[in-house]
Automatic annotation (TrEMBL):
Residues 1-80 form the GST N-terminal domain. It comes from Parathalassolituus penaei. InterPro entries: GLR_AS (IPR011767), Glutathione_S-Trfase_N (IPR004045), Thioredoxin-like_sf (IPR036249). This is Glutathione S-transferase N-terminal domain-containing protein. It comes from the Bacteria.
Length: 80
């Protein structure tokens, strides 16, 4: 499974998730929605929302799902 975190630096909830990433045993691609408008557009097209943080999950078949809420994202990634 592939993971991508959509975030921006000034967001305190994003920082909460970003702080735990180095301690995790999973690789998470970081996608800053303020420095790359394409990421923001991709997120909005898929979810209808622009709020961050949001974790994009992609399984082996290419099916994607999205997870909002920093605490849920942290718990999910720690369980991987």
């Amino acid at each position: 499974m592939k993971f991508a975190l959509y975030y921006y630096d000034a967001c305190p909830f994003c920082q909460r998730v970003l702080r735990v990433l180095p301690d995790l045993k999973v690789e998470v691609e970081k996608r800053n929605v303020l420095t790359n408008a394409g990421y923001r557009q991709q997120q909005y097209a898929a979810t209808g929302r622009t709020t961050v943080p949001v974790l994009r999950l992609e399984d082996e078949s290419g099916k994607e799902s999205w997870m909002f809420e920093s605490a849920d994202i942290i718990r999910f990634l720690q369980a991987q």
